[in-house]
Specification:
The protein is of the alpha/beta class and 221 residues long. It has a single domain, classed as Vaccinia Virus protein VP39 (Rossmann fold), CATH 3.40.50. It is built from five helices and nine strands, in the order E-E-H-E-H-E-E-E-E-H-E-H-E-H. The chain has a nine-stranded mixed sheet with strand order 1-2-9-8-3-4-6-5-7, covered by helices on one side. Helix 3 packs across helix 4. The chain is globular, with a radius of gyration of 16 Å.
């Protein structure tokens, strides 16, 4: 197992490949992540994504590592994955959430003939009853270019917090195997969860560690 890159009272960050780290983790885990979709997304492909620090996603030429993750979990842990609606993750999923991101971001396709892709799919295999009662499955959590300023595929803390509150028990350890800039860890820390992030690119480990060091209430941002 790789040595930790950063650690505080709630959060641990590992710099490495999740396939080398996950087998060493123990206890009740809640995996929540945004694996590479296999679409080779690059900066400028999506309207509003003008990241100055991210020009592509390592491994996004294939979805193989995401499929590996699903096989590794194999029903043993809560699993929540963001996915492309045009190529969802395989298998049976207990819940599907449509995340309406708003019109500030979204793109792809021919602008003259294709509607703006301003939503994503979130696939959930929750192991416990719903924690906040039965909600609608379309969630409106607006995202702006500021949210993706440090990582082209960053997710806002607001949508991750809502996922944690709906599907993850307090005793479960939140794990993001494709941590990126660390939004999952920030949301988990704000809600009092223990959290582990794994990221193959060291520059994002640095960004995530700095975000976790800051005592800033980002939840309402």
């Amino acid at each position: 197992m790789t040595p930790y890159y950063y650690q505080d009272s709630r959060v641990t960050i590992h710099h490495g490949d999740c396939r080398d780290v996950l087998p060493f983790l123990e206890g009740g885990l809640a995996i929540i992540s945004d694996p590479p979709y296999g679409i080779a997304l690059r900066n400028g492909d999506v309207d509003g994504h003008r990241s100055t620090r991210s020009f592509g996603i390592v491994g996004d030429e294939t979805d193989a590592v995401g499929r590996w993750l699903i096989g590794w979990v194999n029903g043993r842990h809560t699993l929540i994955l963001f996915s492309s609606p045009w190529s969802p993750w395989p298998g049976d999923w207990r819940n599907l959430v449509v995340w309406d991101k708003g019109g500030a971001v979204g793109g792809r396709g021919d602008p003259a003939t294709c509607l703006k892709r301003s939503w994503e799919l979130i696939q959930v295999n929750n192991r416990w009853p719903l924690l906040n009662g039965r909600q609608e499955s379309v969630w409106r959590c607006r995202i702006t270019p500021v949210d993706t300023s440090q990582h082209i595929a960053a997710k806002p803390v607001s949508v991750l917090s809502r996922l944690l509150q709906a599907f993850v028990l307090p005793h479960e350890i939140v794990v993001d195997p494709f941590m990126g800039s660390g939004s999952t860890l920030v949301a988990a820390k704000l809600l009092g969860h223990r959290a582990i992030g794994i990221e193959i690119e060291e520059r994002y480990c640095e960004i995530a560690a700095e975000r976790c060091r800051q005592e800033v209430l980002e939840l309402g941002a």
